[in-house]
Amino acid sequence: MLNITGLLAVEASRKQFGLWRVRIIVIIYHILRTKQPYHDLGEHYFEQLEAPRLERHHVRRLEQLGYTVILTPQVA
Fold first, then answer.
1. Residues 54, 47 contacting (CB under 8 angstroms)
2. Quick one: which of 5, 31, 41, 76 could link to 45 by a disulfide (CB 3.0–4.6 Å)?
3. DSSP assignment of the chain, as one string?
4. Is 56 in contact with 71 (CB distance < 8 Å)?
5. CA distances for 59 relative to 19, 31, 45, 50, 69, angstroms
6. How much is the pTM?
7. For 18-68, how does the pLDDT look when each residue is reduced to its tens digit (9 = 90+)?
């Protein structure tokens, strides 16, 4: 008898491994194309890139839960 759950887990891990391979190939492509060393964009790169969208999302979600939200920027 076949263990379907086990086969699905193996297939999922293969797909995930394939995704990492593609990411590495893309990184190598850009390094070779630009002839510049690789530098990591950082752990919070996408959060900073999408900050306005994230703010709107969370404000909207809190308002849906019944809260009144007023955002004030921090003074640095």
1. yes
2. 41
3. ---HHHHHHHHHHHHHHHHHHHHHHHHHHHHHHHT-------TTHHHHHTHHHHHHHHHHHHHHTT------PPP-
4. no
5. 33, 39, 21, 14, 6
6. 0.42
7. 777 888 888 889 899 999 888 888 888 877 888 888 899 999 999 999 999
